[in-house]
Protein backbone atom coordinates (compact mmCIF):
# COMPACT_ATOMS: atom_id res chain seq x y z
CA UNK A 1 0.00 0.00 0.00
CA UNK A 2 1.19 3.54 -0.79
CA UNK A 3 2.53 5.17 2.39
CA UNK A 4 0.44 8.27 1.77
CA UNK A 5 -2.75 6.24 1.41
CA UNK A 6 -5.15 6.77 4.28
CA UNK A 7 -6.40 3.72 6.16
CA UNK A 8 -9.70 3.45 7.94
CA UNK A 9 -9.86 0.70 10.52
CA UNK A 10 -13.01 -1.26 11.23
CA UNK A 11 -13.42 0.34 14.66
CA UNK A 12 -13.99 3.71 13.06
CA UNK A 13 -16.76 2.33 10.88
CA UNK A 14 -18.11 -0.37 13.17
CA UNK A 15 -18.42 1.60 16.39
CA UNK A 16 -20.99 4.15 15.14
CA UNK A 17 -22.96 1.30 13.56
CA UNK A 18 -22.94 -0.54 16.89
CA UNK A 19 -24.07 2.64 18.63
CA UNK A 20 -26.87 3.00 16.08
CA UNK A 21 -27.98 -0.58 16.74
CA UNK A 22 -28.05 0.17 20.48
CA UNK A 23 -30.42 3.07 19.79
CA UNK A 24 -32.72 1.85 17.07
CA UNK A 25 -33.11 -1.69 18.41
CA UNK A 26 -35.36 -0.10 21.04
CA UNK A 27 -36.90 2.36 18.54
CA UNK A 28 -35.65 5.28 20.63
CA UNK A 29 -36.50 8.66 19.14
CA UNK A 30 -34.48 10.83 21.57
CA UNK A 31 -30.96 10.27 22.88
CA UNK A 32 -29.43 12.36 25.69
CA UNK A 33 -25.82 13.05 24.63
CA UNK A 34 -22.93 15.49 24.95
CA UNK A 35 -22.12 17.79 22.03
CA UNK A 36 -19.22 15.56 20.90
CA UNK A 37 -21.69 12.74 20.24
CA UNK A 38 -24.00 14.72 17.96
CA UNK A 39 -22.26 13.53 14.73
CA UNK A 40 -22.83 9.92 15.83
CA UNK A 41 -26.53 10.61 16.30
CA UNK A 42 -26.61 12.18 12.84
CA UNK A 43 -25.10 8.99 11.46
CA UNK A 44 -27.70 6.96 13.37
CA UNK A 45 -30.41 9.04 11.72
CA UNK A 46 -28.85 8.39 8.30
CA UNK A 47 -28.73 4.64 8.91
CA UNK A 48 -32.32 4.55 10.19
CA UNK A 49 -33.49 6.62 7.21
CA UNK A 50 -31.66 4.36 4.75
CA UNK A 51 -33.17 1.24 6.27
CA UNK A 52 -36.63 2.82 6.15
CA UNK A 53 -36.13 3.74 2.48
CA UNK A 54 -35.12 0.20 1.57
CA UNK A 55 -37.48 -1.82 3.69
CA UNK A 56 -40.36 0.48 4.67
CA UNK A 57 -40.97 2.62 7.70
CA UNK A 58 -39.44 0.79 10.66
CA UNK A 59 -37.25 3.01 12.82
CA UNK A 60 -37.82 6.53 14.19
CA UNK A 61 -34.94 8.85 13.21
CA UNK A 62 -33.29 9.49 16.61
CA UNK A 63 -32.73 13.09 17.71
CA UNK A 64 -29.96 14.26 20.03
CA UNK A 65 -31.07 15.86 23.29
CA UNK A 66 -28.49 18.27 24.67
CA UNK A 67 -28.49 19.76 28.15
CA UNK A 68 -27.77 23.43 28.89
CA UNK A 69 -24.10 22.42 29.28
CA UNK A 70 -23.55 20.09 26.34
CA UNK A 71 -19.76 19.92 26.67
CA UNK A 72 -17.67 19.96 29.82
CA UNK A 73 -13.99 20.71 29.26
CA UNK A 74 -11.60 18.66 31.42
CA UNK A 75 -9.58 19.95 34.36
CA UNK A 76 -6.59 20.28 32.02
CA UNK A 77 -8.54 22.87 30.02
CA UNK A 78 -7.55 21.04 26.83
CA UNK A 79 -10.07 18.45 25.84
CA UNK A 80 -13.53 17.22 26.85
CA UNK A 81 -13.77 15.85 30.36
CA UNK A 82 -12.92 12.18 30.15
CA UNK A 83 -11.90 9.41 32.50
CA UNK A 84 -9.46 7.98 29.96
CA UNK A 85 -7.68 11.37 29.81
CA UNK A 86 -7.68 11.55 33.62
CA UNK A 87 -8.97 15.13 33.48
CA UNK A 88 -12.34 14.27 34.96
CA UNK A 89 -14.32 14.70 38.16
CA UNK A 90 -15.46 11.36 39.49
CA UNK A 91 -19.14 11.49 40.50
CA UNK A 92 -18.50 8.79 43.10
CA UNK A 93 -15.58 10.67 44.71
CA UNK A 94 -15.86 12.13 48.20
CA UNK A 95 -16.30 15.92 48.59
CA UNK A 96 -12.69 16.08 49.85
CA UNK A 97 -11.29 14.26 46.80
CA UNK A 98 -13.41 16.39 44.50
CA UNK A 99 -12.02 19.57 46.09
CA UNK A 100 -8.46 18.27 45.68
CA UNK A 101 -9.09 17.55 42.00
CA UNK A 102 -10.66 20.96 41.38
CA UNK A 103 -7.58 22.64 42.87
CA UNK A 104 -5.52 21.11 40.03
CA UNK A 105 -7.70 22.76 37.37
CA UNK A 106 -6.05 24.71 34.58
CA UNK A 107 -6.71 28.50 34.68
CA UNK A 108 -5.80 31.57 32.60
CA UNK A 109 -2.16 30.80 31.60
CA UNK A 110 -1.29 34.51 31.46
CA UNK A 111 -2.17 34.99 35.11
CA UNK A 112 1.16 33.94 36.51
CA UNK A 113 0.89 36.02 39.69
CA UNK A 114 -1.99 37.03 41.94
CA UNK A 115 -1.82 40.75 41.06
CA UNK A 116 -2.24 40.21 37.29
CA UNK A 117 -5.92 40.59 36.29
CA UNK A 118 -7.35 37.37 34.86
CA UNK A 119 -9.34 36.64 31.72
CA UNK A 120 -12.40 34.62 32.73
CA UNK A 121 -13.35 34.12 29.08
CA UNK A 122 -10.31 31.85 28.57
CA UNK A 123 -10.44 30.22 32.00
CA UNK A 124 -12.00 26.79 32.36
CA UNK A 125 -12.62 27.38 36.08
CA UNK A 126 -14.87 30.28 35.10
CA UNK A 127 -16.71 28.06 32.57
CA UNK A 128 -17.33 25.57 35.34
CA UNK A 129 -18.56 28.34 37.67
CA UNK A 130 -21.10 29.16 34.95
CA UNK A 131 -22.35 25.59 35.13
CA UNK A 132 -22.28 24.97 38.86
CA UNK A 133 -22.42 28.32 40.71
CA UNK A 134 -25.28 30.81 41.13
CA UNK A 135 -25.53 33.75 38.73
CA UNK A 136 -24.61 36.13 41.58
CA UNK A 137 -21.46 34.11 42.27
CA UNK A 138 -20.60 34.02 38.56
CA UNK A 139 -20.86 37.83 38.30
CA UNK A 140 -18.63 38.20 41.37
CA UNK A 141 -16.06 35.78 39.90
CA UNK A 142 -15.97 37.81 36.70
CA UNK A 143 -15.52 41.22 38.27
CA UNK A 144 -13.09 40.07 40.98
CA UNK A 145 -11.01 38.09 38.47
CA UNK A 146 -10.72 40.93 35.95
CA UNK A 147 -9.66 43.36 38.70
CA UNK A 148 -7.30 40.90 40.41
CA UNK A 149 -9.43 41.12 43.54
CA UNK A 150 -9.47 37.32 43.88
CA UNK A 151 -6.82 34.67 43.56
CA UNK A 152 -7.18 31.52 41.53
CA UNK A 153 -6.85 29.22 44.54
CA UNK A 154 -9.78 30.90 46.32
CA UNK A 155 -11.72 30.85 43.08
CA UNK A 156 -11.17 27.11 42.72
CA UNK A 157 -12.10 26.49 46.37
CA UNK A 158 -15.37 28.31 45.77
CA UNK A 159 -15.95 26.26 42.61
CA UNK A 160 -15.27 23.02 44.51
CA UNK A 161 -17.95 24.08 47.02
CA UNK A 162 -20.47 24.69 44.22
CA UNK A 163 -19.68 21.35 42.58
CA UNK A 164 -20.00 19.52 45.89
CA UNK A 165 -23.36 21.22 46.54
CA UNK A 166 -24.49 20.15 43.08
CA UNK A 167 -23.37 16.56 43.62
CA UNK A 168 -24.72 16.18 47.16
CA UNK A 169 -28.19 14.86 46.23
CA UNK A 170 -26.61 12.40 43.77
CA UNK A 171 -24.21 11.17 46.44
CA UNK A 172 -27.12 10.73 48.84
CA UNK A 173 -29.06 8.70 46.27
CA UNK A 174 -25.97 6.61 45.53
CA UNK A 175 -25.53 5.85 49.24
CA UNK A 176 -29.16 4.85 49.48
CA UNK A 177 -28.86 2.44 46.52
CA UNK A 178 -25.58 1.03 47.81
CA UNK A 179 -27.36 0.07 51.00
CA UNK A 180 -30.04 -1.80 49.02
CA UNK A 181 -28.18 -3.99 46.47
CA UNK A 182 -31.18 -6.34 46.11
CA UNK A 183 -33.41 -3.45 45.07
CA UNK A 184 -30.85 -2.30 42.46
CA UNK A 185 -30.68 -5.86 41.09
CA UNK A 186 -34.49 -5.88 40.81
CA UNK A 187 -34.51 -2.59 38.88
CA UNK A 188 -31.83 -3.86 36.50
CA UNK A 189 -33.63 -7.18 35.98
CA UNK A 190 -36.96 -5.48 35.36
CA UNK A 191 -35.38 -2.95 32.95
CA UNK A 192 -33.55 -5.76 31.14
CA UNK A 193 -36.80 -7.70 30.76
CA UNK A 194 -38.61 -4.72 29.28
CA UNK A 195 -35.71 -3.87 26.95
CA UNK A 196 -35.36 -7.48 25.72
CA UNK A 197 -39.07 -7.65 24.90
CA UNK A 198 -38.84 -4.50 22.74
CA UNK A 199 -35.62 -5.70 21.09
CA UNK A 200 -37.07 -9.13 20.26
CA UNK A 201 -40.12 -7.50 18.62
CA UNK A 202 -37.90 -5.16 16.58
CA UNK A 203 -35.67 -8.03 15.42
CA UNK A 204 -38.76 -10.00 14.32
CA UNK A 205 -39.99 -7.01 12.34
CA UNK A 206 -36.56 -6.43 10.75
CA UNK A 207 -36.18 -10.09 9.71
CA UNK A 208 -39.61 -10.07 8.19
CA UNK A 209 -39.14 -6.82 6.28
CA UNK A 210 -35.75 -7.94 4.98
CA UNK A 211 -37.15 -11.31 3.96
CA UNK A 212 -34.70 -13.21 6.17
CA UNK A 213 -35.50 -16.60 7.58
CA UNK A 214 -34.98 -17.12 11.32
CA UNK A 215 -32.46 -19.87 12.01
S1 LIG B 1 -9.63 34.04 39.38
FE1 LIG B 1 -10.93 32.32 38.78
S2 LIG B 1 -11.76 32.86 36.80
FE2 LIG B 1 -10.00 34.20 37.17
S3 LIG B 1 -8.28 33.17 36.18
FE3 LIG B 1 -8.31 32.55 38.34
S4 LIG B 1 -9.48 30.66 38.39
FE4 LIG B 1 -9.90 31.68 36.44
From TrEMBL:
GO cellular component, one term: cytosol
SUPFAM superfamilies linked: Nucleotidylyl transferase
Hydrolase found in the keyword field: no
Catalytic activity: tRNA(Trp) + L-tryptophan + ATP = L-tryptophyl-tRNA(Trp) + AMP + diphosphate + H(+)
EC number, UniProt record: 6.1.1.2
Keyword annotations from UniProtKB, A to Z: Aminoacyl-tRNA synthetase, ATP-binding, Ligase, Nucleotide-binding, Protein biosynthesis
Record keyword Iron-sulfur present: no
GO MF term set: ATP binding; tryptophan-tRNA ligase activity
BP GO annotations: tryptophanyl-tRNA aminoacylation
Family assignment from sequence similarity: Belongs to the class-I aminoacyl-tRNA synthetase family.
Protein name: tryptophan--tRNA ligase
Source organism: Geodia barretti (Barrett's horny sponge)
